[in-house]
Structures are given as C-alpha cells and as structure tokens.
Amino acid sequence: MKVVHKISEVREIVNKWKREGLSVGLVPTMGYLHEGHQSLIKKAVEQNDRVVVSVFVNPMQFGENEDLASYPRDLEKDTKLCEETGADLIFNPTPEEMYPEGFCSYVDMNGLTKELCGKSRPIHFRGVMTVVSKLFNIVTPNKAYFGMKDAQQLLIIKRMVKDLSFGIEIVGCPIVREEDGLAKSSRNTYLNEEERKAALILYKTINLGKKLLEEGERDSAILLSKMKENINKEPLAKIDYVEAVDIEKVEKVDKIEGTVLVAMAVYIGKTRLIDNFVFEC
Questions:
Q1: Maximum Cα–Cα distance for the chain, whole Å?
Q2: In whole angstroms, how large is the CA radius of gyration of the chain?
Q3: Residues 75-129: pLDDT tens digits?
Q4: Which residue among 44, 59, 240, 248 sits deepest, i.e. has the most Cβ atoms within 10 Å of its Cβ?
Q5: Which residues are paired to 90 by β-bridges?
Q6: Is the Cβ–Cβ distance between 268 and 236 less than 8 Å?
Q7: How far is the C-alpha of 202 from the C-alpha of 200, rounded, in Å?
Q8: Residue 162 pLDDT level (bands cut at 50, 70, 90)
C-alpha cells in the first residue's frame, strides 16, 4: 500500500489501474480512523478491485471557532488500519495542494442543506461538497462510500452526484457503534470520563424515539418533545437540534409517514456529537 500527497501521483496510479480494467472504490475521510471508517473500507474492498482512502482534514468545512486546529490526526495509525483492511492507496494532501493560492471555485446546494447540521453550521456543506467534488475528479472512482452517521451528508452527496452527473455510485453504510451504543466518531476522543458516560444519552434517546414510533406515535411534535425531554435529563447535554425530516428533501415533517430521518446534534460539554435513525411507516 502507498501513501501519496500529490494530486498528480493519485492520477498516475489510478489511470494505470483503469488501463488495466480495474474498478476503483473511494472512501473519503478526515483521518483518525476508527471501526466506522474501517467498515466503509471493508465494503469498498469487497466491491472493487482497488481502493483509495483519502485522509484530509478539510479546512473549508470548518466554521469560525470550530475544532479545525484540534481535530485529531494520526497518519501512522491510519496507514496501519488501511493496510490491515486491504486498501491500496492513501491520498493525504496538504490544504495547499487541494486549495492552491487563488482558489475561488465552490460547489453549493439549495434545499437539502438548510435544516439539521446545515442550519447550525451554515458553511459546512459547501465545504463538504467542494472537497468531495475535487476528490471525485481526482480519483474518478466507480463507487464511493459514506457512513449513515452523517446522514445529511450522505443524502447531499447522493443528490449532488445525481444533479451534476458524476456517474459514480454512492454506497451508504450503517452506523457503527461502541459496545454501549455510542456512535463511533473521531470526536469521541475529546470526551473525558464523565462526558463519555453522559454521551450515552444520545443512544438512549435514539432508542426512545424508535420505541415511540414502533408503538404508533406519528405526531412529530410529540415525538421530538419527548426525545428532547429525555436529553435534557442529562446535565452535561445541550441540544443543538432534534428534528424529523423527509428522507428525500430533508425538510421538517409534521406527521411521521413514508420514510423519515430522525436526527440530532447534542453538545456534551464542548463536544458536538450527532446520531440518527431512519424510520419507515
């Protein structure tokens, strides 16, 4: 397995694979890889002849006063995980390689980015779509892999690929959780022991929401009120949002019908964590 840092190096390697008739899978990440990322890489290895993992902490998707500087990084650990899981290439560019001097072109979207994380992080998805578009153009994969933990991101990428005719299959993979239910996240490393215990309120609230829906609750206001009430029982938790949205348009729904994404973002201390589930009526 190779680690490369230049766009030209990636293109040279991938073009050679393509000339040999090999299929290519891409797993875009910001590094500090864990079992959630590993599940994406495993799926990519199963479905493609060659797999590229990008490791790039994308400054464009971080807002002011967010955790760009402190975001965890460990390329040595990431390389070991990728190698053990069967990836063929890590693309680890610098910000200057991805966004050279004078860079002024962006990919943006109306609609799907307005609610949930897009509401509290207004520049976030422009940064995500821009960097993912660049990665798609650099790697030209047959398939690309994203986790359902970032459900809104997955829906936005799928829409972008459709709207802009990328010709890439987007594969969504299930949330991977710790033994106690907390969704795997690189940001979990920010939590101290007390906060780590408090963070379980997200998973407990996910289970509460599922239970209410399975018992027949269809009024989203009642559902969300009970979920918020449960989160507020945890003193270290501060709600950013808890919402139910249509799975296609990412618009708030008053009634739970069809396929609905129930998603939340909650601060535990200073750490913002997200979780979600999909419910089909």
A1: 58
A2: 19
A3: 999 999 999 999 999 999 999 999 999 999 999 999 899 999 999 999 999 999 9
A4: 44
A5: 3, 53
A6: yes
A7: 5
A8: very high
How far apart are alpha carbons 153 and 205 in whole angstroms? 22
The DSSP code for 152 is H
4 pairs with which residues across the strands? 91
pLDDT interval class at 140 (50, 70, 90) = very high
Q: What are phi and psi of 189, to 5 degrees?
A: -70, -15
List the alpha helices (DSSP H) in 140-199: 151-163, 193-198
Q: Taking CA 144 as the corner, what is the angle to CA 99 and CA 28, rounded to the nearest 5 degrees?
A: 40
Overall pTM > 0.70? yes
In angstroms, rounded to a whole number, what is the distance separating the alpha carbons of residues 103 and 97?
11
- Contact criterion met (CB below 8 Å) for 261 and 251: no
pLDDT tens, 46-89?
A: 999 999 999 999 999 999 989 999 999 999 999 999 999 999 99
* 34 included as an active-site residue: no
Residues 6+ apart with CB under 8 A from 41: 27, 51, 53, 81, 82, 85, 86, 87, 145
Instruction: Give me the catalytic one of 5, 34, 37, 124.
Output: 37
pLDDT of residue 191: 98
Kindly report each contact of residues 184-189 with a partner whose C-beta sits within 8 Å and lies 24 or more positions away, as own/partner: 184/34, 184/35, 184/36, 184/149, 185/34, 185/36, 185/149, 185/273, 185/274, 186/30, 186/31, 186/32, 186/33, 186/34, 186/71, 186/72, 187/67, 187/271, 187/272, 187/273, 188/271, 188/273, 189/32, 189/72
The type of residue at 17 is W
